[in-house]
Amino acid sequence: MRNRIILFSFLISILVHAVIGWNAIHTLRKADKEMSNQNDQEMMNQTSLNIVNYYQDLESLASLLRSEQITNFSRLYLNMQADAVESQEGNKVNAFLDRLSLQNNWVDKIYILGKNNNQANFSKTIGESGWSTDELPSIDELEEYGLMDVLLRGDGIPAYHTRQELLHVLSHAQKSELEIPQLVKNVHLVNEIEDRMTIAVYDHDVIVLIVLPQNFMPSLTNDALTKSHVKLRLYNPDESVIWTSDSSSQSTPGTMVQSKLLLPYQHRLELYHDEANGADSWRNALEIASLLVISLFSSVLIAYFLSGYIFLPLRQVSQAIKNGNGKIFPFRPIRFKNPNRMLGKMSLQRKLFYYFVCTVMLPTVCMGLLVSYSTFQMHKQQLISFKELITEQLGVNVALNKQSLTNLSYQLMLQETDLRSYAVSLHPKMNDISYYIRYDSKGTTQFSSIYGNNPELFPIDPSILTNAFEQSEWISLSQDVFSQSTSSFINKMMENGQTKGYIELRIKPSGLVTESSLSRSVLLLLNENNQALFQSYPGDLMFRSSAAIGNLQQVDQLLHMEGEDYIRFAKPVADTGWTLLQFVSLKEIGNDSKMILIKHIYVPVSILILAFILSYALSRRLVKPLALLHQHMSLVGEGSFVLYEREQKDEIKELADNFNRMISEINHLMEDQINSKIREQELSSLRVKAELAMLQQQINPHFLYNTLESVKYRAKQNDVEGINNIIMSLAEMLRYAVRGGSQEVPLAEELKQINHYYTIQKIRMRDKLHMEWDIEEQALNVRVLKFILQPLVENAIEHGILQVHTGGRIAISASQDEQALVIEVKDNGVGMDEEELQELRASLEWDEQNSNRDGGVGLKNVYQRLQLFYQGEASMQIESAIMKGTLIRLRIPR
Fold it and tell me: Under DSSP, is residue 489 helix (H, G, I), strand (E, B) or coil?
């Protein structure tokens, strides 16, 4: 039986642990997938936004270069101009481009091509001071070789040219007598633009060609690609690959999960997951599985040792029976080893139930809490990593915005001096500035893009005039003319090394940092001097304090500010000297994680309830054989000797076989005794029958069974003193009952037997029964019939006191007057209504048909014996009321 319950608990534990583990892993992987999707979406949005902004900035540059100041150079006819004129005009174009301060990671080369060989051409590599006209084809030569249509395919929109495409066009071009020189020039241009992105504009027989860096995409993305196991690819409209973050452009990067068309450029950005994606999820799953295995092993050990304590008495009894060589009882009393007082007070079913609680439900609760906490921490760490990646992605966006705003400032300076073109107003970053102002070298306002007739509204910051910065300076947050907290960008207008003025751009908050839609945290952008250039909530100065900024060399740092905990992420913005900080409230992370935790708890709670039900059902099923054996033993106490049959071989089978042998032996003895009793009963007088009836009523099987049950229960509790008191009291009552001699005894002796009876019932009922005495000393010597009071007390207990929960009380009083002894037995039980009381009084008559009321047999016996012995001079009065108890008063003549 022990092995069977260990197996049951093991199977339930496996089921519960498997469900908890599956739920934890499923919930964690689902949350990881959702977070991965959010990260993918954020990366796709940020990268596509960066690409489109980059393209728009270049389009604005292309429109700017269409101005006559640039294109007039290529309209010069070389055969009509001296070389000095060409050099002079070329230097003007070169100086103009230098004043734009373009970066070579933004633009690689700029070409200006004329109509034919008699016109001037121009090429400039960004980052170099000089310019060149060598080896450049004219528009006519480009048309002759078919390259003109290729270059102008976008007409001001970025276009990507593969080497195969360009060589294919050249191979099908028409030949002429100038084939070799023309081919050399075209091949030279092909070599410059192959596998490159270009922007070409055509205006008045002049082409302006902007060539982008060959690998411009890394500046638009960040390290989050490698950290998140994500690959990006940018496709041309013809499905050729413009760029890929994968090292091998020919290999399949993984599973494509997102795709986005970059309108209006018809380029397509795709995001892939490589094979390493999901490794963290499997690592977390392995960690949870390890915890489950440890918990399962622990529950098995608990089951093994705890079952030994539970079944120790049964094993000892079974072993004693085996050592007794099949005897009905062992020769010696069984001494239980190492009894446990707490276990001894419990029924076997309760022990088994607690066993399943300790081996199944308790490990389940502990495991559920541990797994829930581990899942909470894993998800929390995932959220932290996700916030860190968002910070990195926003940092790239900041760097691009800074570069684009810088480009805008240079174009605005040219617009204010010698460039009279509307192209600057089309720059995409114009929407990201509130307004701009131009000052002269002394700081006097010369122009503002708003409120132009009120220049006094835009005084220059005095620190601009006193600070010795080289070319440009970013000013920290301050109030603008609209009372908004904005940062500003100051650029010097230089001429021949002298400062001729300043131009100031007031930047809208969205101009520097395009906030993530997935971030509900506080963002702070600091310059080289740790001054704030941007803050998502400018009014909260707490995040600009030195305590909040902390050590910028530390990527993430835990902070406690104004009663709330934050994690501060610090990421340097590439090529700027700036730092982007993100403050994430632990409450936000905790709330997101708690949602996962709540979802995770549903299944364990359901499983715990199921385990509780299974534990209760199994404990009842396992104890059922013992309950049946107990039922058969109870029937023996009531006089029904029925054998208990059990086929399954275990400890209970051994007890049942021994019980059956005992019943068979008792049946044999009873048959002999019954035959003898029949002969004796035929010779007995009516008075002897009445006395036997009285004795059977007093010492009845129910009383003996209840008393023995109390002995059994106390034996389980190892209450030796309680068992001794019960047995001593029972022995005294039996000795009193079978003692011969006169039927009358002093009242003191009768009361002594009532006290023995009360001792037994007190132990049985614990604190539910209390006895009160009020006996006159002179009445103790009055002689009364034996066992005249015990039935009255038993009736008060069985039909009065047991029906109430607590505070049962029986009061016995005895007094005498001139003629009789008056004895009263009063209880505070449930009592009777008038109809029940009349029925009980009627049952006291001799007619047997009136003795069918419960409890009437004992009272009737007392009443009839009083009438017979005292020849009608004794009386019995019964008074009762519902919930007010019952009073029985005896008057016995002296």
Answer: strand
Phi, psi of 246 (to 5 degrees): -75, 145
Range from 142-151, 196-205, 712-721, 824-833 carrying the lowest mean pLDDT: 712-721
Which residues on adjacent β-strands are paired with residue 196?
Answer: 161
Decide which of 389 and 501 is more confident: 501
Neighbouring C-beta atoms of residue 111, cutoff 10 Å: 23
Angle (deg, nearest 10), helices 362-416 and 279-310: 160
Helix (H) or strand (E) holding 522: strand 522-526
Pairing verdict, β 433-440 and 445-448? antiparallel
The DSSP H or E segment spanning 113 is strand 109-113
* Distances from the Cα of 88 to the Cα of 73, 85, 110, 113, 551, angstroms: 10, 5, 18, 17, 54
Tokens of 366: 């502990």
**Number of Cβ within a 10 Å radius of residue 518:** 15
Q: Give the tokens for residue 774.
A: 């009020």
Q: Give strand pairing partners of 241.
A: 235
Instruction: Give the CA diameter of the chain.
Output: 167
Q: With 50 as the cut, is the pLDDT of residue 181 above it?
A: yes
161 vs 444: CA distance, rounded Å: 49
Cβ atoms within 10 Å of 752's Cβ, excluding its own: 15
DSSP label of 132: B
80 CB burial (10 A radius; 0-12, 13-18, 19+): exposed
Grade residue 772 by pLDDT with cuts at 50, 70 and 90: very high
pLDDT value of residue 195? 85
User: 883, exposed or middle or buried, with CB in 10 Å at 0-12, 13-18, 19+?
Assistant: exposed
Q: What CA–CA distances, in Å, run from 821 to 10, 744, 854?
A: 70, 14, 28
Give which of 455, 501, 36, 607 is closest to 274, Cα–Cα. 36
Q: 3-state SS of 55-85?
A: HHHHHHHHHHCCCHHHHHHHHCEHHHCCHHH
Do residues 393 and 476 touch, judged by C-beta distance below 8 A? Answer: no
Q: Could you give the angle at the alpha carbon of 201 between the alpha carbons of 200 and 203, nearest 5°?
A: 150
- Give the span between the Cα atoms of 619 and 611, in whole angstroms: 12
Residue tagged 């099908």 (tokens): 172
pLDDT confidence of residue 852:
47
Cα→Cα distances 326→148, 303, 663, 854, Å: 114, 32, 15, 43
Cα Rg for the chain, rounded, in angstroms?
Answer: 53
Looking at residue 123, its amino acid is S
Nearest residue to 387 (alpha-carbon basis) of 573, 594, 578, 570: 570
Cβ atoms of 299 and 368 within 8 Å: the answer is no
Sign of CA dihedral 49, 54, 55, 60: positive
Q: What are phi and psi for residue 562, nearest 5 degrees?
A: 50, 45
pLDDT at position 413 over 80: yes
pLDDT higher at 862 or 295: 862
Residue 17 has pLDDT above 80, yes or no: no
- Global confidence as pTM: 0.60
CA distance 292 to 21: 7
Tokens of 847: 């007619």
Are 825 and 789 in contact, with CB atoms under 8 Å apart? Answer: yes
**8 A C-beta contact, residue 32 and residue 165:** no
Phi-psi bin for 562: left (phi > 0), alpha (psi -120 to 50), beta?
left
Q: Which range among 126-140, 473-487, 875-889 has the greatest average pLDDT?
A: 875-889
| Contact between residue 458 and residue 475 where contact means Cβ atoms under 8 Å apart | no
Token code pair at residue 525: 């952008």
- In terms of Cα–Cα distance, which of 771, 692, 790 is closest to 738? 692
Burial class (CB in 10 A: 0-12, 13-18, 19+), 450: middle
pLDDT digit string (tens) for 652-701?
Answer: 666 677 667 777 777 777 777 777 676 665 554 455 455 545 544 544 55
Give the per-residue pLDDT at 775. 92
